[in-house]
TrEMBL record:
This is Uncharacterized protein. Residues 11-25 have a biased composition (Basic and acidic residues). Residues 1-49 are annotated as: Disordered. It comes from Blautia segnis.
Length: 76
């Protein structure tokens, strides 16, 4: 069958009317366990922040020591 202009326009209208995202047929199927996100509590976030700050502090101390040693070597 050869498509004429009217058929092409009808097909374009049908495509435009279709949603881009289709809900899966099994979307209401509760037999599968739901995927859950990790719950982040304020306490665990504070612990993580503390660990990160300690790590940064340690690296800064190492950089300062290296800079001091380099400066001392230049002055000799």
């Amino acid at each position: 069958m050869q498509m004429n202009d009217e058929n092409i326009q009808t097909e374009e209208v049908k495509r435009a009317a279709e949603p881009e995202y289709k809900i899966p047929e099994d979307a209401t199927d509760n037999s599968r366990p739901n995927e859950t996100a990790e719950v982040v509590t304020r306490e665990s976030a504070e612990e993580t922040n503390t660990e990160l700050l300690q790590s940064i502090d340690k690296k800064l101390d190492m950089l300062l020591a290296a800079q001091t040693a380099t400066q001392a070597a230049k002055e000799e």
